[in-house]
């Protein structure tokens, strides 16, 4: 009798997908290995062996879910994985359901709630938290009476860049840390004690000087290219397969279709007993997307679970993702979808 464990259950499920999802197709282990790429038939066999199963990495299960989400995988001369961007709404929903099922079987993994994984926005009691925004540049303020301190209508928040992200995050952190002193300031108004608290930096190197100072001090193989430096719209420069690649936002004429956002968490270079977090987009909707990835109640549990699975208890990590813009609104990125993740550091072990 095969061992009745979650590992064995996953092995049986993977075999059933190959043999029973489309029984008329006669998919072989060799067919599957060719479609997944960079795996051997022997490795596929080990994943399907319920008596002594080998656990495939999560990224391989993502491929399985995409492959078996649509019968269009059988179109053509050989089995293939349909690019995620070509899936229909129904196929994406089927892929998500299948991936949740496979993840739940992976080494006894049960989908974790937001409360069960390390909550990156909850800090130890009575530790100060400082949220740092860029000041809105003077040339953008001069036509706003609300941003003029001499105006009777002056509102200080109009002098902050990324106010959407600030309001979203400030309320969330206050709720998560009721005993902490949570403050927010612009980068040009910090006092020395602010630097040694838990630092959360909103916005990129174009306007936020503290983001620039921190990125220069941490060991992170990602460079943010400011707008109109090497590229008109800027982006994040990373290395992939030995080549330097610029991950850029996408436009249609002057309309933003997709921003690029980075979430970074590491040890603060100013106080090793505290953390620094960077939520950074090339534009404001990217910054808000990086924040909402772990505050939006519809996505935060799965995104927190993904970070837990992917990075474990790593002290420092970074993820760069797409932030789609629809109807002028930035959408919360789902990090569990491979096509949304543009770069991760540290790199996953093969």
Verbal overview:
The chain is 31% helix and 21% strand. By secondary structure, it is α+β, with helices and mostly antiparallel strands. It has 2 domains: 6-108, no CATH class; 129-345, no CATH class. The strands form 2 sheets. Strands 1, 2, 3, 7, 8, 9, 10, 11 and 12 form a 9-stranded mixed β-sheet that branches. Strands 4-5-6 form a 3-stranded antiparallel β-sheet, with no helix packed on it. Strand 5 and strand 6 (243-247) form a beta hairpin. The longest helix has 17 residues, at 89-105. The radius of gyration is 23 Å and the shape is elongated. Residues 13-75 form the HTH cro/C1-type domain.
Over all CA atoms, what is the radius of gyration?
23 Å
Percent in strands: 15-25%
Total of helices: 11
General form: elongated
Helix content: 25-40%
The count of domains is: 2
Q: Describe the largest sheet.
A: 9 strands, mixed
Give the quaternary arrangement of the chains: single chain
State mean pLDDT (0 to 100 scale). Answer: 87
Distance linking N and C termini = 32 Å
The secondary-structure class comes to alpha+beta
Count of distinct strands: 12
Elements, N to C (H/E): HHHHHEHHEHEHEEEEEEHHEEE
Low-confidence stretches: 109-117
GO molecular function: DNA binding
Protein name: XRE family transcriptional regulator
Organism: Amycolatopsis eburnea
Salient structural properties:
nine-stranded mixed β-sheet; 350 residues; three-stranded antiparallel β-sheet; 2 domains; alpha+beta; 31% helix
């Amino acid at each position: 009798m095969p061992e009745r464990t979650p590992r064995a259950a996953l092995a049986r499920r993977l075999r059933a997908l190959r043999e029973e999802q489309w029984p008329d197709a006669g998919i072989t282990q060799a067919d599957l290995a060719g479609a997944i790429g960079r795996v051997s038939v022997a490795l596929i066999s080990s994943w399907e062996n319920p008596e002594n199963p080998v656990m495939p990495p999560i990224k391989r299960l993502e491929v399985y879910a995409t492959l078996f989400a649509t019968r269009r995988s059988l179109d053509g001369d050989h089995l293939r994985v349909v690019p995620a961007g070509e899936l229909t709404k129904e196929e994406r929903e089927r892929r998500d359901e299948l991936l949740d099922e496979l993840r739940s079987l992976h080494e006894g993994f049960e989908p974790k709630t937001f409360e069960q994984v390390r909550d990156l926005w909850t800090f130890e009691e009575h530790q100060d938290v400082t949220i740092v925004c860029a000041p809105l540049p003077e040339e953008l303020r001069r036509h706003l009476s609300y941003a003029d301190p001499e105006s009777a209508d002056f509102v200080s928040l109009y002098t902050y860049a990324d106010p959407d992200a600030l309001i979203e995050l400030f309320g969330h952190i206050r709720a998560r840390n009721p005993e902490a002193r949570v403050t927010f300031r612009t980068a040009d108004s910090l006092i020395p004690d602010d630097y040694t608290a838990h630092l959360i930096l909103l916005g990129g190197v174009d306007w936020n000087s503290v983001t620039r100072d921190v990125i220069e001090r941490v060991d992170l193989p990602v460079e943010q290219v400011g707008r109109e430096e090497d590229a008109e719209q800027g982006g994040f420069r990373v290395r992939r397969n030995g080549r330097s690649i610029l991950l850029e936002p996408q436009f249609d004429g002057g309309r933003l279709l997709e921003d690029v956002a980075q979430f970074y968490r590491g040890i603060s270079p100013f106080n090793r007993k505290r953390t620094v977090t960077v939520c950074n987009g090339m534009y404001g909707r990217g910054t808000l997307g990086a924040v909402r990835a772990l505050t939006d109640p519809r996505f935060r549990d799965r995104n927190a679970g993904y970070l837990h699975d992917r990075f474990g208890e790593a002290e420092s990590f970074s993820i760069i993702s797409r932030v789609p813009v629809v109807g002028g609104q930035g959408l919360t990125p789902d990090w569990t979808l491979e096509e949304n993740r543009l770069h991760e550091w540290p790199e996953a072990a093969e």
